[in-house]
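Lab notebook, bench 4. The sequencing result for the construct came back, and we need a structural model before the next group meeting so we can plan mutations. Quick request posted to the team channel:

Model the 3D structure of this chain.
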Amino acid sequence: MKKPHFLISHEDYWSIWIGGFVLLIGLVLFFRNAPKDYVAQHEKYETIQATEKAKAPFKTMEWYDAFRSKQKIKASSEPVGKFFKKLTSKPTSWNSNPLESFYKSSARDEADKKELIIKLANAVERTKMQEALAKEAESKAAKSNYENNQLNIEAETAVEQWYRARDRADKIRKKSKASNHFKIGWMLLWFVILSMLFLPGIFYLGKKRSAFAKGFAFVFLIAIMAYLFGAQVNMKAMGIGYAAWAIILGLLISNTIGTPEWAKPALQTSWFIKTGLVLLGAEVLFNKVLAIGLPGIFVAWVVTPIVLISTYWFGQKILKIKSKTLNMVISADMSVCGVSAAVATAAACNAKKEELTLAIGLSMTFTSVMMIVLPMIIKALGMPEVLGGAWIGGTIDATGAVVAAGEFLGDKALSVAATIKMIQNVLIGIIAFGVAVYFTTKVDVDSTAEKAKVGLSEIWKRFPKFILGFIGASILFTLIYISLGDNHAYTLIDQGVIGGLSKNVRGWLFCLAFVSIGLSTNFVELKHHFSGGKPLILYVVGQTFNLLLTLLMAYIMFYLVFPNATANL
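Done. Here's the predicted structure in token form:
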């Protein structure tokens, strides 16, 4: 048989092809099925917002009404978006009976509806009360021709409280109308489509498609169970989501009855994550990175390399960790952005599978704790939202955990935290390239003569190629976003290609990867890595340094060096 072309004989390239295909499908379908007259609608609401902004020194009720109307213009609300939402749906919330995620008895369904009706009635009542207060405060400010600063501040506060109250009521209303069932038929269709995406690659990588398909059914089933357990209301409240459950369930199987041999061909951990990272690239937009300005860039791009290098040095010189690859993967995992950076770095330095597993396990454990504890500390200290958001964005590993923690503090903190994490994500490719160069030229050579022979070809061989897909998707979607403008891009990209398709697919791919990690991990294999507790010490010391340095840098940049930029956030 003729050897396949190198572009289809490596899983890194297949990650790019699969991720690119999903993004292309999204672009074609969402752009061809855009909301009717969405351009004219955006222009209408933009005009209202501009008029209100010129009239008052704060965001008025009319401004928020227009903003809310713009937010409703989503390509994901069109038929194609509803189709993908059903196709990629996950188990929904449940309390005491997991079957409620799939089916509810008429009595239980009726009881839940009554509970939501009561909650909605209370929320609507609070909204009406806040609306009256906002109108009164806004009227007083208008009568003074907006020259009384105290009245302006009171009006701004009252209007914001009204908007938040109405937003909460809208969420309850949406929940009361939504179907609370995870449809088995859609799940089976999604299983078929998802497996079909990987089967061509399985063939060209020289693996058996039948063996993969059989094992993939097993991995997919556990992924559903992980989503199901993560959807339990108490688990959600504690921040224990699908990712943790995916690894836990996999570990329970692999360390008790053992992972079945026939399932192992489907444990494509790195391939699943790499494909998900290509999709993530579409969400890392350079124009959004620049929107937060130099303060955020300094926090993400100055602190991160310092923490990475310092932690690696600490592991080698102080802790004397024998495995340099384990040291590097943990250092990158903790300092950059968790799982994503760990996978890219592991590929760049040829880390062992169990080393990557250990790093990811540490990251997810500390992330679950930090996403709950850090916002509580920020609240207790009375820290400003911008500073708190910057601290969260620069230190908590997973993007989803950053969003959850930022949301706990407020909208401004959420925006700053998510943007800084996005800026940090850009470093994935740069860090991977740097690690590939360092290990190729300094670590994985035994003599000066060998070092002299190392060239670009060897560095390229080590470099994780899927990073090119990540960067390519980022550049492409940044250009599309800029060409469309913020409003239209929100409708077609944020709430279309990304919000309506790629983000959901990425979530499933990460879940499958975490299941694969659990199923392919045996504690006996990991035991020798915990000698003296060094990996744990490395992570704790590195993360402590990260927390302190990020907070210091965020304070200096946002409040001492660029206070004007902070005031405009």
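The two ends are 60 Å apart (CA to CA).
Will bring this to the meeting.
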